[in-house]
Amino acid sequence: MIAELLLTMVLNAEQLYTELLFIEAKKIHNKIVSRNEIYDAPKLYLEKTDIVNAWVYSDGDGSVHITRGMLLSVKNADELALVLAHELGHWVHRGRQTPYYAEYWADEHGFRAMKIAGYNKCRGAQVVWRWGAESSYSHPSSTDRYVNITPNCYGKANVESDTLEYSKGAQ
User: Fold this and answer.
1) Under 8 Å between Cβ of 138 and 169
2) Are 114 and 107 in contact (CB under 8 A)?
3) Which of 22, 82, 133, 157 has the highest count of CB atoms within 10 angstroms of its CB?
């Protein structure tokens, strides 16, 4: 009985924590959209999975999806802004290049859009570095992407970050 109650409390706390992070994500998403005047921007949706991912559907009204795993993996508002701005870059671009090169374009768009919205691109880029992904048919390696989007960030990316109010990464 006590074990069930404790488990319920932990699950409820995790759900609340995720919802608080998602509220922060929506604020960042809306700030990027408004400051960059993306009038037809898609809505942001939360996917309740621990997989670290985000994506955009560009059909119809479109939609940007971010997973609970991604929300828990970012360490500050700048990293979350880069992820969201990158996905909005795919929306603005709407797949007019091959998937592999569209990632570079979305990264560059994301950097510009997050900067216009007032976020620090050097701190945001750290999330790309931590992914550590190898290249695939659709994505360049994380190392290539990081080097491509951070030529002026060397030595600046490890400054104290503005942490998300509810982020586990703020420890």
Assistant:
1) no
2) no
3) 82
- Tokens 């620090």 correspond to what residue? 120
Name 126's Cβ contacts closer than 8 Å, sequence gap at least 6: 75, 79, 157
* Separation of alpha carbons 134 and 12, rounded Å: 36
156 pLDDT above the threshold of 50: no
Token pair 């990264």 in the structure block, residue: 107
d(CA 99, CA 103): 7
Dihedral over Cα of 140, 141, 142, 147: its sign: negative
pTM of the model as a whole: 0.80
For 99, 101, 103, 132, 148, the CA distances from 135, given in Å and listed in that order, are 12, 12, 11, 10, 14
